[in-house]
Write a structure and sequence with these properties.
The complex is a heterodimer of chains A (160) and B (699). Chain A is built from five helices and five strands. Chain A has 160 residues and is α+β, with helices and mostly antiparallel strands. In chain A, strand 1 and strand 2 form a beta hairpin. Chain A starts with a strand and ends with a helix. In chain B, 28% of the residues lie in helices and 26% in strands. In chain B, the strands form eight sheets. Chain B has a seven-stranded mixed beta sheet. The longest helix of chain B is centred in the N-terminal third of the chain and has 28 residues. Classes of the chains: A alpha+beta (160), B alpha+beta (699). The complex binds FE2/S2 (inorganic) cluster (FES) (2 copies). One FE2/S2 (inorganic) cluster sits at the interface of chains A and B.
């Protein structure tokens, strides 16, 4: 385990960190950069609460090393904060999706990635994407509704 | 909600129940008590609310927010009577203060226990604002009205805002008695109000215990004996301390602790630990033999919970009877946020960020742990050195009633003489939960010639099992005996969403269908005939209508169950759809609740959806299994919870009521598993005697 200098592009800013060569991105975000919106729950890539965007693609921050992310564009839940008007976040609030909220960064990042790729995902595609994020409080029915509603809003705005 | 700031050292000690205005007692972190004269006056008639000169209303909620919504529902109760503009309301978690009584959130009690107190707290403040407003407007108080943060003189429509009345209201006498509003005058209660804690849960700003960061904080984790009751014999501490980033590695009564510069280094070092353990007393026990072994060892006899008529004689001479045994497994809580606790140490003081369901218990726990380490100090001296701060909780479900993580964090911080955050990795969390107990239910029942239940005998045998849910049989049956053999448990047991109602309702409601079918009766109609509680009967009737109970066939199979718990009454109906001869899938789940007056209907719906999903996971997913005195499971891969795609459509119906509120966080859990088992009994003709259930094929 050697310390190495890594340059991370997170939410539009550039960060130089000294990191263990095998430390997962999750712990660099949380402990070194103070970005605690990305959550630890299983650490083995099963629960999805640590989901972030890597060059726009969803990735589990507990399963990739910080070193692997050097030079890539990392977006965490904090990076979506200025998009409160995004149909997804609006629907999320309107439908009062979160309960305890702990899994919700993962849910939102995943749903955001899904809708960015495709404005009108099918029910199967929604199932496939969202089944990667566990929610112990059982917000699934509202997650589904919020994605469907956001998808309708996005299609109305941008019928492509 | 105000952003949470661990660095806020001018932490305000609320001077409870004093009607003071400008003077607040501030406790500086260094410990000296300073009387600060706050430049801006405020109106703080009691421990629950404060209004400042901008008209901002701060409400202090003393229940833990773990997703069940008390910050909002309880704020609504105060705001309703305070006649305040909801847009001006902000909420903070109340500090630990005797003014709030015992601070512990559980048993679906938040609304019930605060229902009267909080409305009165709001009404007292309103009365004082009315008196101040009348004086200001030079009008008689009985011609004035409080509405939307204003006092208005009705005849002239002249009005003044609460903001301007802050100083004056604080001078008014505190009224002795107040009149509360009638339900027809409610403006907030009964409307779907947006949750005050949600905005920050969408942008990463919400702070849970695990997100606490203190200056120079160290990170700790722990390895506890996999076998319950085991003790450390020896471990490779010297080797572990050589690892980069590791500050210390030492033994506690509970296990081996690693302290590091980061969570990851601590977790990795924990994995590298080689610990020899002294075996625990549970070594021989497995899920399959534990009830038998402990029953054989104990000299205890079952204790009677309920008896009327002559059940045993009746069963002996019955024409037709059913005899069955169900066994329900251990369950883990699997809170999404693993156990953690952060302790700030400075000048002999301990500030503790405890994501706990009970700050009062956390205080007692921390004081006890420190007392053992500093016996020269009295309890009172120790408590004066401790501050408990309750952040948001990433799930609770009963797990966080227990304070084991607080004890450990305090011991570690004391050992290190340094601020420390303790985080359990998920593996520790799964193997050291306080589990929902394993229980066994022997049920015998008999029928008269007409096929009506005549006698009923339920024997519960369980590890520290409870009687709730079995202590009042909902049905009118002439001969009944309910008894329980409650075994001492070497496996830690604790409250789990709906507690003993979960297994007891399963046994009662599934056996009811077994009996009904043996008597050739429609289980739903027999329930309607025998249920004693009108409200329970009404929710079942409503569920039957909503699901078109009569329209069942080979393709569409329904199962129902009812249960009253935590002051509410719930009926659930589970639909199974037949895909082909061998394959069933879950259809829709319908849930009807009568929880008295519905405070925030949208939160109630969310809680019921969550309860159904929680209970469905327990019914269908692999449970916790004990093998050689230890838990075989480790993490979410082998202790799975229900996933997005496995969740069927759920419809929640809230039946209208004006009665006092009942609980909503748990009552939706108990009816689900028996309703599903009853649908399976209908489909396969066989009772479901074990969990997890299998939709297809016998279980
Ligand atoms: S913490 Fe990364 S998937 Fe669970
Ligand atoms: S909202 Fe609590 S785990 Fe999803």
């Amino acid at each position: 385990m050697d310390l190495m200098a890594v340059t991370l592009h997170v939410n539009g800013s550039i960060n130089q960190v000294e990191a263990d060569s095998d430390i997962p991105l999750l712990w660099v975000l949380r402990d070194q950069l103070g970005l605690t919106g990305t959550k630890y729950s299983c650490g083995i890539g099963v629960c999805g609460s640590c989901m972030v965007l890597l060059d726009g693609m969803p990735a589990k921050a507990c399963r990739i090393t910080a070193a692997e992310c050097a030079g890539k564009k990392i977006t965490t839940i904090e990076g979506l904060a200025d998009q409160a008007d995004h149909p997804l976040l609006k629907s999320w609030l309107e439908l009062q999706v979160p309960q305890c909220g702990y899994c919700q960064s993962g849910q939102i990042i995943m749903a955001y990635a899904l809708l960015s790729e495709k404005h009108d995902p099918s029910a199967d595609e929604i199932d496939q994407a969202m089944s990667q994020i566990l929610c112990r409080c059982g917000t699934y029915p509202r997650v589904r509704q919020a994605i469907q509603q956001a998808s309708e809003m996005m299609r109305a705005k941008d019928p492509s | 909600m105000k952003p949470f700031d661990p660095e806020r050292r001018d932490f305000l000690k609320k001077s409870a129940l004093s009607a003071g205005s400008a003077l607040v007692l501030g406790i500086a972190w260094s410990g000296e008590i300073v009387a600060e004269t706050d430049a801006t006056p405020e109106f703080k008639p009691n421990a629950w609310l404060k209004i400042d000169t901008h008209g901002v209303v701060t409400l202090y909620i003393a229940e833990s927010e773990m997703g069940q919504g008390p910050f909002t529902s309880l704020s609504m109760l105060i705001a309703e009577e305070l006649e305040v503009d909801w847009q001006k309301v902000q909420v903070e978690h109340a500090p630990l203060d005797p003014a709030y009584g015992f601070q512990g959130t559980g048993g679906s009690r938040s609304v019930r226990r605060n229902w009267k107190i909080l409305r009165e707290a709001g009404a007292v403040a309103r009365q004082m604002l009315l008196a101040a407003g009348a004086e200001y407007l030079k009008a008689p108080v009985d011609r004035c009205q409080a509405q939307r943060s204003h006092i208005t003189h009705r005849p002239s429509s002249k009005s003044v805002g609460y903001a301007e009345l802050v100083g004056r209201a604080a001078e008014m006498p505190v009224p002795k008695g107040v009149t509360l509003k009638q339900p027809e005058d409610y403006r907030l209660i009964g409307t779907p109000v947006s949750r005050l804690d949600l905005a920050d849960k969408l942008n990463g700003k919400a702070r849970y215990g695990i997100d606490t960061k203190l200056p120079n904080m160290l990170y700790a984790t722990i390895a506890q004996s996999p076998q319950f009751g085991g003790r450390v014999k020896r471990f490779n501490g010297a080797e572990i301390k050589q690892r980069p980033g590791i500050i210390d590695c030492f033994e506690l009564e509970e296990g081996v602790v690693v302290v590091a510069q980061g969570t990851w280094q601590a977790f990795q070092a924990r994995k590298a630990l080689k610990i020899d353990w002294h075996g625990g007393k549970a070594a021989q026990l497995d899920s399959d033999n534990i009830i038998q072994r402990l029953s054989d060892e104990t000299s205890q006899k079952p204790s009677l919970i309920l008896e009327h008529g002559e059940p045993i004689a009746q069963l002996g001479s019955a024409l037709k009877s059913v005899d069955t045994e169900y066994r329900l497994p251990f369950q883990a809580h699997m809170t999404p946020e693993p156990m953690n606790c952060t302790v700030g140490v400075e000048d002999g003081r301990y500030r503790i960020w405890a994501p706990t369901q009970s700050p009062t218990s956390a205080m007692a726990t921390a004081a006890k742990a420190l007392k053992a380490l500093m016996p020269e100090l009295s309890e009172a001296e120790l408590e004066a050195r401790i501050e408990i701060i309750t952040p948001l909780l990433g799930g609770g479900f009963g797990r966080r009633i227990k304070q084991d993580y607080v004890t450990q964090a305090v011991k570690i911080a004391h050992h290190m003489k340094h601020s420390v955050q303790l985080i359990w990795p998920r593996e520790e969390d799964v193997q050291h939960d306080h589990y929902h107990p394993l229980t066994q239910h022997r049920l015998r029942g008999s029928l008269d010639e007409a096929g009506n239940p005549q006698a009923w005998h339920h024997l519960i045998t369980g590890l520290q099992s409870g009687k709730y849910g079995a202590d009042a049989l909902a049905y009118d049956i002439p001969h009944v005996r309910v008894e329980m053999l409650r075994l001492d448990s070497p496996v830690p047991i604790g409250p789990w969403r709906s507690v003993s109602n979960h297994y007891n309702a399963y046994a009662i409601e599934h056996f009811f269908d077994e009996l009904a079918r043996a008597g050739g009766q429609n289980p739903l109609e027999l329930r309607l005939k025998l249920l004693k509680e009108a409200r329970l009967k009404a929710v079942l009737q409503r569920a039957a209508e909503a699901t078109a109970w009569q329209r069942q066939d080979q393709q569409r199979i329904l199962g129902c169950a009812v249960h009253s718990s935590f002051g509410s009454h719930v009926a659930e109906i589970v639909e199974l759809i037949r895909l082909d001869e061998h394959k069933l899938k879950l259809g829709k789940i319908t849930c009807v609740i009568d929880c008295g007056i519905a405070i925030n209907p949208d939160t109630i719906k969310a809680q019921l959806e969550g309860s159904v999903i929680y209970a469905l996971g327990a019914a269908l997913k692999p449970p916790i299994m004990l093998k050689n005195g230890r838990v075989e499971q480790h993490n979410f891969h082998d202790t799975p919870i229900l996933s997005f795609e496995e969740t069927p459509p759920i419809e929640v119906i809230i039946s209208y009521s004006r009665l006092d509120p009942g609980g909503v966080g748990e009552p939706g859990v108990p009816p689900l598993a028996p309703a599903l088992a009853n649908a399976l009994l209908s489909a396969h003709g066989k009772p479901v005697t074990r969990m997890p259930m299998k939709l297809n094929g016998a279980s």
